[in-house]
Amino acid sequence: MARRSSNKKLAFIITLAFVSITITALGVALSHTAMLSVSYPDGRTGNGSNIPDSGDYDSVYQALSLVTDNVSLSDLNFTTYTYGGCPVQQPDFTHFRFLFPNSTRQGLMAGSDSISLSAYPMQRMDFDATFTDPSTNAAGFDEMVVFAASNTVSYNGTEFGIRLSLADGFIYGYIQEPDGSGVNFQMTKLMYDDGMMHHYTMIALGSRVSFYIDGVPCGYLNFPTPVDYSSLTFSVCTVVHRFTDGWSSGGDSMTAGNFSIG
What we know:
Blueprint: H1 2-34, E1 38-39, E2 45-46, H2 58-66, E3 71-72, E4 78-83, E5 95-99, E6 110-116, E7 120-121, E8 124-132, E9 143-149, E10 159-165, E11 170-178, E12 183-192, E13 198-205, E14 208-213, E15 216-222, E16 233-242, E17 253-261
Antiparallel strand pairs: 1-2, 3-17, 4-6, 5-17, 6-16, 7-16, 8-13, 8-17, 9-10, 9-16, 10-11, 11-12, 13-14, 14-15
């Protein structure tokens, strides 16, 4: 009986060890699965932990947990415009697809827009987007952009957004604010476009806007004026803009949707 009892104990210990190893391996696999590999402007790759001043994101993550009253937008919350470009397509009730125009309007900007019918108080904006850009040899500031704007008449107000440059194929975060004589415009490289669908988040906290891709912090910008713009209301805008001719934009397009604001 003593030998049988000893064998049972040994089998039980071996089973526990196997379960422990399996759980540990599963945890490691899941943690790696949840990480996004980001290509940074200087050639580094990682999951966000090696971004300079990463400690500055702590307060932003706290804000993320506080912003819970999010509003989801459907196509009924938007209106679309076309000026020398292709009409905006709506593959479903929450997404818009934009084909990039083949030329300007005889030197004037060509493109198409989707703009929310209402303006909202906004500290956070989430959306999914796929930028398809086989042609990235633009001669100028040609772009595909998703952004929040406080002024959709002259577009010289406060803005923050995600833009794909068709001059270099990089995805940028940008901010804009009036400076008296015009606007102050800043942008920072977030990653090189891989043509895949990603989830983008922008958090406006005080005078700082932080940018996330698939939940990974990728950069931030500070408005030159230390003003808290959370008291403003913003429209949700998705646009493609062609400013220059003399290059081929064949195949360039953008699909964006699942908009959520808070």
